[in-house]
Design brief:
Blueprint: E1 5-7, E2 10-12, H1 17-25, E3 29-37, E4 43-50, E5 53-61, H2 66-79, E6 82-90, E7 93-103, E8 110-122, E9 134-136, E10 142-144
Antiparallel strand pairs: 1-2, 3-4, 4-5, 6-7, 7-8, 9-10
Length: about 150
Amino acid sequence: MFSGELRESIVDGHHNWVRYYLEQKAGNVAYHGYYDYTSDEILGIIQYRWRGNLKKIGGFFFRTSPAFDFSLFTVCSLMYPGDNKCSYEINGSGLYVTSFFEECKDRDDSCLSTSYPVIGKKKGEKEASRRVGMGRKAGGRWEWLTWG
């Protein structure tokens, strides 16, 4: 989840900027464009291909340590699991963590399936914009990327 995995050519996880950077540097990531980002650029939501497979919507913090990400995702997943259930604020930006559990294969228990950051409403904003970036589609044409 944190470093990314493929499930039938669908990219799951990949919610860490260090891993994204290393994969991009190795030539395994093709950036398509962004959907949204916080004004302080601590969190971004982007679209890209990883090893030839599309990550339609992916989000991660920028310039944070893996220890910060793991700590935040762990606390939010254990205390407030679900869709946008864990809310917090960094530098005036309203943010959420979404996390879900699934049945473990090897034991009679539940395992963390995913946990990722989501941009919330900004101070004084009624609704966060989700159509702010452009991406190059096949054929070289630039188009708006839409989300939601």
